[in-house]
Structures are given as C-alpha cells and as structure tokens.
Write a structure and sequence with these properties.
Blueprint lengths: L19 E2 L2 H10 L38 H10 L4 H15 L1 E2 L4 H11 L6 H4 L1 H7 L14 E16 L2 E12 L2 E17 L2 E8 L4 H7 L1 E2 L5
Antiparallel strand pairs: 1-5, 2-3, 3-4, 3-7, 4-5, 5-6
Length: 228
C-alpha cells in the first residue's frame, strides 16, 4: 500500500516543540548510531604580500550563543553575535528555542520586543505576532509538561541539522531536552525547524514547522559543542 507524503505542517513558533517521550534505551541507541560531528570548513585562500594562504574555519554551533539566560537580552545578544554563515543561523535558531519554550514565559512587552527585532519582515502575520501566541498558549509544551509546572528547553543534550542553505537563507532543525522543575529529563526531547533569512545585517526568523520527528532529528543531528 502506498502512503503519500504530506507537506510539513506550518505552525506558530510557540507550537514548534514536537516533543516525544523516548524510552531511555532508544535514546541511547539513537545517540550511539548518530555519526560523529563533522567539522564544517569554509576554505578561503587569502592573498598576502608573502603569497601565503590562510584557511578560515567556521566555528561549530555551541547552542549557547548569547549566554545561559532565557530572556530577550540573551536572544538579541545571540542574534547580534551570530555571523553571516549557516552556523550563525543555527545559533539564532537555538537561542529562539531557549527563549520560546519555557514556563513562566515572556510577557507581552518582551514578546513584542523580540518580534520587532528577531522576526523577519517577510514572516506571515500569524507567525510574527508572538505576544498573541504567548497569551493564547501559556503552556508552550502543549501538554508535555503539566500546566503551571516550571520548565524550559536546554541545548545541553541538543543537536542541530541544516536542512538547506543559501547565502542569505537557511532552514535548520534544533533538538533540545526538557528541564522540568530544575531536572533534565532523560526521556523528553523536542524537535523544531526554522527558516531564517539575513535581513538588516542579522539572521531573522521567517517561519517554523514540524518537518522532522524527534527520533529522526537525533539520528542525523550534530551535537552542540556546548549547550545551555
């Protein structure tokens, strides 16, 4: 029997955490089977008076650009520090995951600040209105974590994967883990996919989708070098 593939489901950024409860043994197996992180190198010969050649190596995503905070200041700092490279787009996506998925979440003023600075001008209105999404969904885990329970997503057990990339556009997926009441869950993981565009000298988010399952992303993703 043939099964027709369905296009990725487009959603608000608050709904991007495709959480899945994975048995501990499966998590271990997936991580064991994941290929070792591959260094992404942009080799660019640079002419000098001595005719020497310099190879510029792009830094692997840390998952913690902007610092360990989870407020707008962290996200804006990550955006400001992210280079105009694919890995820079990955860092901004990871920072967006850390800012978005938490309880207590941001207030309307903070959400509007992030929308003004981090959401692309080409984003759909329903994606760009972060304040409305936050008010309508006070529990961004969508039931994975009980209502009113403090939680956030951490990139310490996180992975990343570049779905596609152009000089000014990138689609990237970010995997992260749930920290509930201060404890990192050994089973709960999240998968989020974002499209980012380079606008006004910075990476900005244009859309998001649930295009990969958590198991799939963790089987192909590259581990962040740091995480927070």
């Amino acid at each position: 029997m043939r099964v027709e593939a369905r296009p990725p489901r487009r959603i608000w950024p608050w709904f991007l955490a495709g959480a899945a409860v994975i048995a501990a043994a499966v998590v271990v197996l997936v991580i064991a089977l994941r290929p070792a992180p591959a260094n992404q190198v942009d080799a660019a010969p640079v002419s000098t008076p001595t005719a020497s050649t310099t190879v510029v190596t792009e830094q692997e995503p840390t998952g913690c650009l902007g610092g360990p905070g989870r407020d707008a200041a962290m996200l804006l700092a990550a955006q400001a520090a992210a280079p105009h490279t694919t890995n820079g787009a990955v860092e901004v996506a990871a920072a967006m995951v850390r800012w978005t998925f938490r309880h207590p979440g941001p207030g309307a003023d903070e959400a509007n600040q992030v929308a003004d600075d981090v959401i692309a001008s080409t984003a759909a209105p329903e994606f760009a209105n972060l304040a409305a999404a936050a008010a309508a969904n006070p529990n961004p885990s969508r039931g994975v974590v009980p209502d009113e329970t403090p939680f956030y997503l951490s990139t310490v057990p996180g992975v990343w994967h570049v779905e596609s990339a152009e000089p000014d556009r990138a689609e990237v997926s970010v995997g992260s883990g749930y920290v509930i009441d201060g404890e990192l869950s050994p089973q709960l993981r999240s998968a989020s996919t974002f499209v980012l565009v380079w606008q006004d000298g910075a990476w900005k988010l244009e859309s998001g989708s649930l295009s990969r399952t958590t198991q799939d992303l963790y089987s192909i993703g590259t581990t962040f070098t740091g995480g927070c």
